[in-house]
Each structure stands twice: as structure tokens, then as C-alpha cells.
Amino acid sequence: MLCLSTAMSFGQKKDAGVTITIQQSTVKADSMWVLDPAKKDTYFAKPNAKGQFVLRFNGKFPADLRMGIDNPKKWQISFYAEPGDGVKIETDFGKTAKFSGKGAGKAEVMYQEAKANEIAFEKLDWKNVTANELLQMFTKLGQQAITNLKSSKAKVSPTFYKEQSMALIYKKLGAELTVPLFCKGYLGRKLSASIPDDYWGLDKDIPMDDQLLDNKAYLQFMAYSYPVFLRYKELFNKGTIDTPISREEGAKLDYRLVEKAYKGRVRSEALAAILKAGFNTAKDVEVFKPLMEEYLAKYATPKNAKEVETAYSNLGKTSVGKTPPYFILKDQQGKDVTLKDFAGKVIYMDFWASWCSPCRYEMKNGSPKLHAKFKENTDVVFLYVSIDDRADLWKKAIAEDHVEGVHVLSAGGFKSPVGRAFNIDGVPQYIIIGKDGKIFDNNAPRPSQDITQSKINEALSAK
Questions:
Q1: Which of 43, 111, 259, 440 could make an SS bond with 434 (beta carbons 3.0 to 4.6 A apart)?
Q2: Residues 6+ apart with CB under 8 A from 166
Q3: Short-list 114, 117, 95, 96, CA closest to 106
Q4: Bond prior to 207 in cis (omega within 30° of 0)
Q5: Domain boundary at 66, 100, 134, which?
């Protein structure tokens, strides 16, 4: 049993904490991951003698929590935790889940929403689904969640009901607005062929209200979903929606469109998000320096200014052409490994974790094919940096996926020392180090992408 009280304690009274008990039924798991999104920390728990995962939290509430298992099957669940909650769940990690205890109503509402989405995606005809059908599905799922919340009002807390009533509106609208992005990213279609009927009218009556920024869903919608819609609308009107645009150009266009359409603190928050996202994907953050300085002078709140300046400073250290952060990590045999060990070689760094499904997919499907293309080339090194908290799970995943290469562990999840040094805020993430020991690509493509072989060859031929 894992007790999170120490890790998450802020000195509140013991009875103000939250307890979540998960009773396994027909399916048994030997460990459970627990994610605190606010802290970006992942913990692992073991079942007790009764087969229960008992998780105790003390800290700042309300809090969004998420937990799940990876073996023997994939399963996860989310919670909106408030002081004093004590929820018990009996589940087979699949079709059934029974909720009881204080806070059970909230957990059940969120579970039903997630389950409805899961079922809808399982039934989706991925090859033939149209943009109109996707929009109808997202609209139906969003409205179903809103209706279910209203019918469950007596079962949930006033705080949860107020928060979710607003959140579900913008989660629904956000899903609707990103249909073209979904079609392009997941189905590989042109944006011009991914615009549903009446799509351009979906943004009517969107409030520009600073008071709503306390709602996470509204903030995320205004910072991420709506700017994408504004960009598509601008490009569509110009007849260039299918014309390739670089990430830097896209970020700058988003900035200008939001600058014009937004106002107040909402504008400051959204522009900050656009700049930070731009820094994160730019080969050299200095291309954004003029725009950042303009933002700091005209729109930034003190809070946003600090966030943007910190992000610029941190990400500037891992720009293309910079010397990567120094580190010493242990491999599976306990031997010290540093980047200097591979001097004169091209290093393809893969940041991953055993609990990350996309990471594992790439390692099982993309990595073997990529490795085969450089099998005879001793000037290419595949370095895998895990941010797992536990060495046993790290080693188990490597053995299960049969991943060749150099494996090292930098424990700590998203607080992993090496992960933070390289500005890793999500996994999987890939970086290419050139033969000169400098960063060649700070946002490299995945192993499964055809362009990756070309990128590595480009690094090999660079002078």
C-alpha cells in the first residue's frame, strides 16, 4: 500500500484528506500508477492483503487526480477530490465499476462520461467516418455529459456541480472546434476535406470573461482550442488552409489572431500559452524574442510575464546548436553513462516511461525498424532515458518490449532531474545530438515516422 500523505501534505488536518479505495474483483493488478496533474508527479501503489489499492491524499483541494493500471490490461479513472472524500470502487478494470462512500456521486459522474467516450470511439468506423459524423458524435457526447450532470445534481457537491457545469460546456465546444485537427492528425486527411457543415459558426457567443479563468476547462479552451479554430478560419478565408506552415509561423499567426480577437486577462493568458508552446517546439527560441518582448510590454500580467520569461530562459538552454545539459546516469548494470561516452557519434535520445502507452507503442513498433536501418552504422547510438520512479518497472518494460540500445534511468516522473534539464514536459519526446556534441534537433520525430531516418542521416553528414 502506498500512502501519499507525506508526499502531498501541506499540513492540513488528517480528517481533511481524501481516501480512495479500489477493490479488485475478477481482474487482478500487481501495481497501480497515480498521477497528480497539478504536480505532474506519478506514484505507484501496491495492493494490500485484501487485494485493495488504498490511496490517501492530504493537500490542497479541490484537486484533479487520475490513476490506473497497465497490466494485465489498460484502465484508468479520474477523480475530482474534495476534503473528507472517502470513495470505494469495486471494479474488474473493464465493464463494471461500483461506487460507494463520500464523493462516490462525483466519481460515478466522471466515470460515466469517460465510459461513454470510450464506447463511442470503439464503435467509430475509423476508415470511413466523415467530419460531419465526428462533429455529431462530439456534440452528442458533450450534451450527454451535461445532461447526466444535471440529473445527478443531488448526488454531487455544490462545488463540483458548479465547476463541471461550466467545464462541460467548454469541453464540448473544444471537441467540436478541433474536428479538423482530429481528422488531420488521426486520419491523415487534408484540412480542407475535414471541415464539417456550419463549422465556422460554432464560435458564436463565446464570452471573453476574466472571471471565468478560474475554470480550467474555460482557460484551456481559450488558450488552446479556440486559437486553432481562429487559425483555420483565417487560412480557409485566404484559400491556404492546406498549405504547409511551420510551427514557428503557426505560433506567430495564432498570436496575432488572439491579440486581435481577445481582451483583458484572457488575452494575457492565451498569448502566454501560445508563446510557451512556440518556445517548446522551436529549434531556436530566439526567433520568438521580438514577439515575447512585445507581449511583455503590452499585455502580460506579472504572473504571465514571469512564466513566459522563465520558459524562454529554460528552453533557450536546449535550443539547436547548444551544448546539451551534462548528466551522469546509471544503466541497467549500474554502470555510469554520460553523453561524453558517445563523443563523435550521433545520439538519438528517447525520453519515455513504462506507464506511457505511446512510448511503449513506439518502442515495440517504431524502434526495431529504425534500429535495423542503422544496424551496421556504429556512429549512431540509441539512448533511452526513462523517467520511471521504480527501477523494477523500468527494467520490466525493457524486457517485455525487447528494446535494444543504451538504457538509463532518471527517476522522478516529470520532476526527473535529467528530464527537467532537457525541458521534458511530456513523453515520449525525442532529441538528436550531433557528432559535434551539440543539439541537432530538440524536437525530433518519432521512431515510426519515415522522416526520422532522414533526420539521423542529416546529422551524420553534418560538418
A1: 440
A2: 212, 215, 217, 218
A3: 114
A4: no
A5: 100
What the block records as the C-alpha cell of 61 is 483541494
- Specify the CATH number for the domain of residue 16: 2.60.40
- Measured from the Cβ of residue 154, the count of other Cβ atoms closer than 10 Å reads 7
Predicted model pTM: 0.81
Residue type, 459: A
Number of domains in the chain: 2
Mean pLDDT rounded to a whole number for the chain: 91
CATH of the domain at 353: 3.40.30.10
Whole-angstrom Cα distance, residue 448 to residue 282?
Answer: 22
| Three cell numbers, residue 15 | 480528517
In sign, the C-alpha dihedral spanning 235, 238, 240, 246 is negative
CA–CA distance, 168 with 170 (Å, rounded to integer): 5
Residues of 399-436 as b/e, b for ≥16 C-beta within 10 angstroms? Answer: eebebeebbbbbbbbbebebbbbbbbeebbbbbbbbbe
In a domain, 42, yes or no: yes
SS3 325: coil
Using one digit for the tens of pLDDT, what is the confidence trace for 3-33? 333 233 333 344 578 999 999 999 999 888 8
**364 φ/ψ sector (left φ>0, alpha ψ -120 to 50, else beta):** alpha
**Could you tell me if 318 and 286 are in contact, meaning their C-beta atoms sit under 8 angstroms apart?**
no
Examine the fold and report which residue of 75, 100, 125 is the final residue of a domain before the chain moves on: 100
pLDDT digits (tens, 9 = 90+) for 214-227: 999 999 999 999 99
Residue 37, pLDDT score: 62
In a domain, 6, yes or no: yes
Domain hosting 372: range is 329-461
Among residues 40, 19, 130, the alpha carbon closest in space to that of 85 is found at 19
Q: How far apart are CA 423 and CA 414, in angstroms?
A: 9
Residue 453 lies in a domain: yes
